[in-house]
Amino acid sequence: VRRTASQAVFCVARHGADVQKLQEALDWACGKGNNMGSVDCSTIQSGGACYEPNTVADHASYAFTLYYTLHRDAASQACDFHGLATLTPQNPSSGNCVYPTSQDSVGNVSPSPPDTSSMVSPLQFPPQISDSSAPSPNSASSTA
Q1: Which domain of life is it from (predicted)?
Q2: What is the pTM of this model?
């Protein structure tokens, strides 16, 4: 998806993406093992405006969009996550859940700036993707 200066785009989970890998990407974007500056995932916590629908794909899409909005100028692959995410002009916002747009300045990121001395490309997130078949609980509700 190519964007123009006036067109908003969103970074969302690919349809059919592996749920366990999406969960790992969600955890990474929300700060677990992320040294590029994590996003504030409180909106997808229980009681948050974007908690419902309570699915890994929906929570990941919100976190991916926040991450993309923060890093789109610094990293050309800011919406890839090992092929788990894609850009779309379709606004996934619904009800009280309002996604930031690629045009917004994002205020809900971690207070500390990214550590550029050891930056990991979004293509390298997380350092290892698990291939275990153990179920991964939706920890988005416990991610900070």
Answers
A1: Eukaryota
A2: 0.71
Q: State the residue for tokens 């009800």.
A: 95
Angle at 142 between CA 136 and CA 144, to 5 degrees: 120
Q: Is 86 helix (H, G, I), strand (E, B) or coil?
A: strand
**What spatial distance separates the first Cα and last Cα of the chain, rounded to whole Å?**
30
- Tell me if 85 sits within 8 A of 59, measured CB to CB: no
H-type helices in the chain, by residue range?
A: 19-29, 56-71
Cα angle value 38/39/42 (rounded, 5°): 130
pLDDT in tens, 87-98: 999 999 999 999
Residue located via tokens 């969103």: 10
Omega before residue 53 within 30° of 0, cis: yes
Per-residue pLDDT tens for 27-61? 999 986 566 667 999 999 999 999 999 999 999 99
For residue range 109-132, list pLDDT tens digits in order: 333 333 333 334 444 454 444 444
